[in-house]
């Protein structure tokens, strides 16, 4: 199995809309799913107007999911919200992710997708660590982070993505490995890594 990715384009919005409407995604992403809302919220990153990246992830050439990746320094309000719980160092990156097809959930693909995007992150020499806050109730998400090599470093209260959830969150982190120096991320830069 090979995981590949590319930047999300406006042509992908109908697929993203379908994924956001699926119950297993809607439960945690709590996103408006009209075509207008998808274009409004994903359009700026797709056009390069936002510093974040929306990456469409493929498994053996077929769409698997979506990863949003951003630097905390580009969105300081998120770092400020985390500050009472955990210091966010310069160069810290965050990710959010989903697997679109519910038939692919529970097969170990989430950790593979996360590992691939983290490897891509180390190709940026300024990236120091990956820090991901997750609703404590979303056990599948934080277990995927653990299986991908991130470790729980803090717990605390943050604004939930879905108003039905309480404020309890767990925070996972992975620091840049010493081996991620020159030459790191070669496969990741090509958008292709074995799953």
UniProtKB/TrEMBL annotation:
GO biological process terms, semicolon-separated: response to antibiotic
Protein name: Aminoglycoside 6'-N-acetyltransferase
InterPro entries assigned: Acyl_CoA_acyltransferase, GNAT_dom
Keywords of the record: Acyltransferase, Antibiotic resistance, Transferase
Single annotated GO MF: aminoglycoside 6'-N-acetyltransferase activity
SUPFAM superfamilies documented for this protein: Acyl-CoA N-acyltransferases (Nat)
Domain spans labelled N-acetyltransferase: 3-177
Positions of region (Disordered): 175-195
EC numbers on record: 2.3.1.82
One Pfam family hit: Acetyltransf_8
Gene3D superfamilies to which the protein is assigned, alphabetical: 3.40.630.30
């Amino acid at each position: 199995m090979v995981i590949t990715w590319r930047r999300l384009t406006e042509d992908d919005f109908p697929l993203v809309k379908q994924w956001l409407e699926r119950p297993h995604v809607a439960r945690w992403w709590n996103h408006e799913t009209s075509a207008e809302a998808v274009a409004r919220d994903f359009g700026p990153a797709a056009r390069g107007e936002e510093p974040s990246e929306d990456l469409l992830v493929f498994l053996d050439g077929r769409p698997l999911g979506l990863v949003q990746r951003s630097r905390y320094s580009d969105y300081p309000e998120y770092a400020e919200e985390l500050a009472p719980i955990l210091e966010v160092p310069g160069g810290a990156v965050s990710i959010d992710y989903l697997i679109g097809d519910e038939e692919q959930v529970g097969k170990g693909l989430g950790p593979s997708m996360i590992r691939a995007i983290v490897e891509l992150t180390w190709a940026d020499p300024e990236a120091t660590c990956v820090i991901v806050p997750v609703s404590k109730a979303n056990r599948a998400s934080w277990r995927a982070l653990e299986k991908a090599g991130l470790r729980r470093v803090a717990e605390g209260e943050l604004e939930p993505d879905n108003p039905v959830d309480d404020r309890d969150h767990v925070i996972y982190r992975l620091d840049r490995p010493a081996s991620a120096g020159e030459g790191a991320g070669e496969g990741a830069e090509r958008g292709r890594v074995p799953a």
